[in-house]
Amino acid sequence: MRGHPQPASWEPTGHLYTGMQTVEKGVSALANLRPSRIIRHLVHYATAKPWLTVILAVALAVLSVWYTVSALKFATSRNAMASSDAPYILADQAASKDFGSLSYLVVVIEPPSLQQGKQFVRTLSARLHGDTQHFQEVVEKIDSSSLDGKKLLYLKPRELRDLEQRLADAQDFIYDLSEEPGLIPLLSLINQEISRALVAYVIKGFFGTPESSSVDEDPGDAQSLDISFLSALFTEIDAALSTPEQYVFTSPWNSFFLKDDDVFSTDGYLTSKDDRFFFLLVDNRTQGGSFVKHNAAIRALRAHIAAVRRDFPDVQAGVTGGDALNNDEMVAAQRDTVYATLLALVSVAVLFIVAFRQVWRPLLVVTMLMLALCWTLGFTTLTVGQLNILSISFLPLLIGLGIDFGIHLLARYGEERAAQPDFDTA
Length: 426
Prior knowledge:
Layout: H1 14-32, H2 35-48, H3 50-71, E1 73-75, H4 87-99, E2 105-110, H5 114-130, E3 135-139, H6 157-169, H7 171-179, H8 183-207, H9 227-242, H10 253-257, E4 278-284, H11 295-309, E5 316-320, H12 322-356, H13 360-383, E6 386-388, H14 395-419
Parallel strand pairs: 1-6
Antiparallel strand pairs: 2-4, 2-5, 3-4
Helix pairs in contact: 3-13, 5-11, 6-7, 12-13, 12-14, 13-14
């Protein structure tokens, strides 16, 4: 056409042609490195030297298992399942750094009586102190001597008000006793207080109101002496007269000033407020980085408790505390994971045998799966280094996920084996 020049034929120049050839060679090289080609070469090498392949696979699996057993660590703390940057995790780490970690096994004892509870605690603590293989510290009581002269600081405001009222009500009684101390004057003053209380009660019964004019004392004085003081006093007198060689004096005045005489208890046993439970704190020795590092000590502790309970059949006792609960949780998780893994392997093998109507080839695929699991554990130990209670439970899932390749391989091999004349070609 006029006015429109014809396009000249285009040919690459020398440098451009050389560059295009280089690109084509690179693409061809990448094509030769495709995964399918790599797998084909790997399969060809494995089929050419089958025994060497099997020996290397088994050796790598054994090495992986050995490395896993010796180097894999377990993070048994629940904090390991949360982000390490979480504010509450950082706060817990800071508190543990400043104040230490008070991780004790707690033995809870429920005796039918206080005396049996104390005997049980003494017997059990003696056994635990002797078992230094599992326990490094046992706290069965505290030394209350450091509280001498300071016990009023531990009273509640209500108890302080009650104490003040009791002192005011018993002021004359205490003053008379201080003028003439001794057991006989004490009993005489108690007799006077009982007589005054009896007279006040009789007059109140006749007239309906307390009669302050017929007696010299305020009617409030009639209640200044609590019956618990008499009980404690007569208990001390009886113990001193019946077994003088074994008698240890305990002041009855605790019950005189406070109704709750346990506030001034000098035994030092760890008890609940209502004295229903006794407690022992046990610091155990752990087993390194084991998934159940407290298990040996807890089993030993429960064995000691069972042995002591044979002599105290009416006493109930058990182990609790954060470490004990975590250990029971880890033991259950480990046991259930093993059962689930074995069940998954057996189920996969049976399903393979039924589906393919063969025995040896499905079993070989399951064996290959077990070797692959060993390699996976070794690789996890090398790259991650630790597992927690959640990640260890994924092992049965790996069986279901990892068997997929074996299914495809065996099905494809069956097709090719039927179509090809020999094993190597298939």
